[in-house]
Give the backbone structure.
Amino acid sequence: MDDRATSLARPTDRLLTDIARYVYQYEIQSPPAVERAQIALLDAVGCAMETLSSGDCPSFIGPFVQGCTTRRGFRLPGTAFELGPVEGAFDMAVLTRYLDHNDAFPGAEWGHPSDKIGSILPVADWLSRNPAETSDITPPLTVQTVLIALVKTYELQGCVQISNVFDFDRA
């Protein structure tokens, strides 16, 4: 048996299994948590808008090839760019994080849970605009879906970050 087959035969790490179960099966039933996610989303978009008028950051965003657009792509807020999900995620994350005005969470390692908005929002938007490619996703994605995803990412990052250091020079 080759190394790849051996590695595929190993059981999945329990933490990964627990995270997957939480993401797919746990129902968020806390209205205050969803309200806070809405505030975090608005804050992140506000940071992104401020970033667009700040220094060099606008030169970091946009399509890899100038003038290219992705049909039914993610419309990067505050710009005319319509991007694929990967470019959109990168650009949205750059815009929300560039000025570093957004949230921070302490633990064994500091982190910014709202960084996840940079990937959640563009991917959810792209999936919603491309139903033919995502016919297995039901029901349709809504802002509520995005907010629930944010609640879960905040909770996951917080729980993992409290007791784990990811800067191996400090570990």
